[in-house]
Amino acid sequence: ASCARHPHPVPIVMGGLVPQAVLAASVLVMISAALDALRHREYLVATHQSFTRPPSVVVLQGLVGLVACTWGVILSTPALKPIRTSGGREIKNFDYFLASPSFASYNHRPFR
């Protein structure tokens, strides 16, 4: 879809409400996974069982939340702007930047 102000086609999904909604939902999914892991740990302590690893559902929930959060962050950021050089540096050549007065000698005056 293109707009009168944007001559280039702009994806509808990028920078819109969809990535922000996915980002918010993924944060909630990761919080839910952390709370489920804590509940599982409390259950193991209450039943005097040893902790080996979290349930696979909790791990899957955390991974889905992480992937969705990454996708939401990447697509909700605005487009990068180009770095522009200042007008004075565009006309100067390479020799101008390498010139240094370190070779100059100031001993041409008579010693008094």
Annotation keywords:
4 helices, 112 residues, 0% strand, mainly alpha, single chain
Radius of gyration: 30 Å
Number of strands: 0
What is the molecular shape?
elongated
Element-by-element helix/strand order: HHHH
Task: Provide mean pLDDT, rounded.
Answer: 79
Q: Given the helix and strand composition, which structural class is it?
A: mainly alpha
Summarize the amount of helix as a percent range. 40-55%
Figure out the total of helices: 4
Strand percent estimate:
under 5%
Largest sheet: none
* Contiguous uncertain segments of 5+ residues: none
> How far apart, in Å, are the first and last alpha carbons?
80 Å
Structure description:
- The chain has 112 residues and is mostly helical.
- The chain has four helices and no strands.
- The protein is elongated and about 95 Å long.
